[in-house]
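re: ur question from earlier - yeah i can do the single chain one, its not a big deal. heres the input i used so u can compare w yours
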Amino acid sequence: MEPPESLTGSAPGDRALSGPAAMSADDVLRLVRRNPVNAALPQCHLVAGCVFQAVWNARSGRAVDWGVRDHDVFYFDAADVSWAAEDAVIRQAERAFADLPARIEVRNQARVHLWYRQRFGGGYPQLSSAREGIDRYLVACTCMGVDAATGALYTPNGLDELVQGVLRLNPLTPQPELFAAKADSYRTRWPWLRLAA
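and the output i got, formated as tokens:
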């Protein structure tokens, strides 16, 4: 299956930047790929809602950026997993993206295992790549990202369930309570989504 147009280029109904929240995943991807901060980040990927929610919005006849709260960027740098190193990258990105009408969140996937339990409960393994972080999203069909260097779409679980709106607990992150809350949040915004049987 080919990626939906909303992930690969301008889609019909894609609106122009017109206000503080008006920015599509395509707009952010173009800026992320041009930004020297992200070019220097190893294994840099644009991930999460700004990517997969574009598909649900296109299916719902909405602007691709409707309901997107932030734009997440994953990278992987195991050379320094200190908070100070990640914070320096976050601050660089804040300065680089200061003029954008979107909130950008940058996270080093090499250090997630250091803080995950405190924030979400449960264990989290030490990862060996940014893509392993993408692989571990709570909802299986939302495991997707766009490589900032190449523009390649990474979807370890394919696109079928995403396009069909099937929400399934990711077996790599078996946290049913967190999954249920996330699925409820999605179904409030996109009522046609359904839980896997």
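The two ends are 23 Å apart (CA to CA). not sure if urs matches, ping me
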